Description:
Distance between the termini: 104 Å
Order of helices and strands: HHEEEE
Structural class: mainly alpha
Strand order of the largest sheet: 1-4
Amino acid sequence: xxxxxxxxxxxxxxxxxxxxxxxxxxxxxxxxxxxxxxxxxxxxxxxxxxxxxxxxxxxxxxxxxxxxxxxxxxxxxxxxxxxxxxxxxxxxxxxxxxxxxxxxxxxxxxxx
Length: 112
């Protein structure tokens, strides 16, 4: 008889705890899908995407300007290959990082 009472009390305790946990989760889910919360979430995501797009446009413009400068330098004869100045086996560093000499472009300032 004592075993049955123990199992009954254990079952009741588990049921009460499970019901309390489920009630908490349901309230939390309901608050997340409330119209105000959905609108707030949408605005936050839209702002993040807008920032991402603006960053991509800025980066694209910077690369475009750099490429345009290289083309102008090439046309004006201010662009030369680093390989003309580097001996075979020499190491080339840019900002402290080793790089292939064929990937470095040397640009000279125009005389003013």
